[in-house]
Every structure is written in C-alpha cells, then in structure tokens.
Design a protein that fits this description.
Blueprint (H helix, E strand, L loop, with lengths): L3 E4 L3 E3 L4 E7 L8 E7 L6 E6 L6 E3 L7 E6 L4 E6 L8 E8 L12 E2 L3 E6 L1
Parallel strand pairs: 2-11
Antiparallel strand pairs: 1-3, 3-8, 4-5, 4-9, 5-6, 7-8, 9-10, 9-11
Length: 123
C-alpha cells in the first residue's frame, strides 16, 4: 500500500522558517517525481515545488521561487521542503505527491497523495 506521510507543519510568525518532510512508502522511490502542493481555504490546490528522481531539475511556482527549496533523499525515501521568509499568503494545507509519468513536473497529474500538513503564518 502506497503511503505518503507529511510532517512539519505548524503555526509560525511572518518571516519565519519551516521545513516540511514527506516519507514515502513507494518503491522504487527513485522512479517517482515528487511534488509539493498547497491548498488555502476557499482556493484551489496549487503547485508549489517539484523535483525529478535524480534531484534535478527542480521547479517552483513564481510565488515561492527564491524562498522555498525542495530536496530529496533517495536512500531514505523522503522529500523535504525548506520554507524561508514565510508570509501569511503561504498559509494552507501542504500536500506531498508522487507521480511516475512523462509530463511536466508542475502539471497536476500526480498519482499518489499524502493527507497534508497544516501551515499557518500569522501576521
């Protein structure tokens, strides 16, 4: 059974830092592109960051480019998202996702999803 389990979300102040982690039970992990998505209340889910199986390339949405960094540890089957200079607009539920198909990393056609972790940035 495929599982993606996110952790690391919490309440932080504007300008703060968080690191999210996602542990994946999918095998082989290196077969999958990994992505992070975000859904704010009343809004559609949006792509935040993605990473190819080898660690390159990485892709970011314009809203987080330069502040967020996605990385993966293939030996540990984990993907992380380091978030710097957090803003209230970054609040939402963050989902880890995986896909094994030849399509753009930012395309929302991922096969497997976690249950999400809540990030709240106070102003």
């Amino acid at each position: 059974q495929v599982q993606l389990v996110e952790s690391g979300g919490e309440l932080v102040q504007t300008g703060g830092t968080l690191q999210l982690s996602c542990v994946a039970s999918i095998r082989p992990f290196t077969r999958y592109v990994m992505g992070w998505f975000r859904q704010a209340p009343g809004k559609e889910r949006e792509f935040i960051a993605g990473i190819n199986w080898s660690g390159r390339p990485t892709v970011y949405s314009d809203s987080v480019q330069g502040r967020f960094t996605i990385s993966r540890d293939n030996a540990a089957s984990t993907v992380s998202l380091l978030m710097l200079n957090l803003q209230p607009a970054d609040s939402g539920v963050y989902y880890c996702a995986a896909k094994d198909r030849p399509s753009p990393i930012q395309q929302d056609n991922y096969d497997f999803w976690g249950h999400g972790t809540q990030v709240t940035v106070s102003s």
